What we know:
22% strand; three-stranded antiparallel β-sheet; single chain; SH3 type barrels; alpha+beta; 2 helices
Amino acid sequence: MSRLERGLVGLALALGLAIAAIxxxxxxxxxxxxxxxxxxxxxxxxxxxxxPSASLDSLAATWKNPLFSPDRSPDHAVVQAQAASLSGxxxxxxxxxxxxxxxxxxRSDGPPLNLHQGQSLPNGWKLDSLTATHAEFSSQGRSQxxxxxxxxxxxxxxxxxxxxxxxxxx
Length: 170
């Protein structure tokens, strides 16, 4: 036997002894902690903790000095200017389900809006009527219509298709 073979036989014998020791239960005796005396405390002495109640007046300082504002000053009020038209809005969707009529609008400078029929935009324009393809708005005697953008497919190409050279498949 060569030196390598003797080493492998020795390793196999050592592993066999380890397996025999594990399966025979030599190391199965756990080291348990000593048993503690039972507690004689009753559950009656513990009372549930309730959150303290606060009035709105006591929380007013929270609104005046916001926690996450870097200078701890109130947020500046956003001034909504009266819009002369609905030029910054796009009608992106319409939801009509029985009495529920909602126009989905996208602003060019802000988050999208969902506006129910009869509600007004922050700039004063009121949604008067809503159909599947357009929305009618009115403000101070003026009216304006936003149409749903319906993209069209381009016309078919007139260029002939490209063919690969004839080659046999492998």
